[in-house]
Amino acid sequence: MTAPLTTTTPGVPEPDLVAGAAPAPTTPGSRFAAGLATTPGRLALATTVAVVACLLLGVTGFLAGNGQSAALRDAQRDAAQLVGTQELRNDLVSADATATNAFLVGGLEPTEARARYEASLSEAAQAVPSLAATARGDGEAADLAAVSDSVQRYAGLVESARANNRQGFPVGAAYLDQASSALRDEVLPTIDEVAVSTSQRVDADMGSVSLAQALLLFVLLALVALGAVQLWLARRTHRVLNTGLAAASVALLVGGVVATAAVLGGNGVARSVASGPYAATVATSEALSLATDAKSMESFTLIKRGSGGEFEESYQASIAGARDLLGEAEDATAGGSGATDSLALLDAWDEKHTEIRALDDGNDWEAAVEAATSRADDSAGAAFAAFSDRAHTEVEATSKDAVDRLGSAATTAQVAAWIALVLGVAGAVAAAAGMNVRLKEYR
Asked: What superkingdom heads the lineage (predicted)?
């Protein structure tokens, strides 16, 4: 017996399928889309966007300000380290210049010269441990420790030269030559390597300061997002003002302005310091080192008695380099009087050196030595001392200016970071509260 055939009308579902049809399956995506189709769902999404925008501004403002503050602090610390390293070099070169100049007198050197030598050497000896303790570069502490050992060896050779010179032994000149060579071949190159490493670190620090500006794009994005939420809400509810969102907007605007002004201002300070007082400090300090080295070469030219041509060449090269550097310092300080005064004093001392060379070349060696070692007001020694004192004053002034400005900018960036974070969180709370009022209207 065959089953009866059933027929269906096209387009009409079977009765049993309609009665027992299962509900269509749902997915998270479909539920989310369904939620957005309702006003409460859209209000919830707008609330999330507003809160996230506020937190985004707070967090990015904090990261930008805090990161820039750290970079400025690093630049401040490394700049001070570089100045200290250059001052260490200047102290050692100054001690050597004083020792060689005093050697010309013969016998027991003048008490004043001995005191200057010991003061310079003592300052150098005290500076090495301090610089080693604050060194950040790889191997810098070890290099400075090696400098300390070499300085002790240098001091021992100078004492041997002094003892022999006091007794009139010619071998004293050999000891002095050996001491000066050890200083220039072992100590100064090591210090220069440390200075170059530190200078590169300062440049890297200055570059890091500007990186914080990239985060300001997120600050702008947060402000735009909150503005979009306010515009949508005003059109949806036909109400111009939402107290919570208005408060959040004010908080974000203030936080954004504070963070932006601090970050851009800090970047401007870093650039102006790098091309201004910091550049002037480095240039003046290097010029002082070259000039002091030239002073040693002046003495060695006389010690060699007619065979010191190479030392005179070194003198002229050092003086030319010092002039160029002082010109750079003058440019960095926008024509400030300090670098100009140092350059004029350097020229005045160089004129005295020309007089010394004229006496020596005219076979009046005793008069040349007297002119080189005299401390009278119109002497070469007094002229060099005037230049040295002025250069030291300039280095102290410009380095303090650079360090103070970097420190002030770092503090400003740090304060701005916390202001941005606090206002961002406060704005998120205000935005959530304001949007919650509208949500309650639909419940």
From this structure: Bacteria
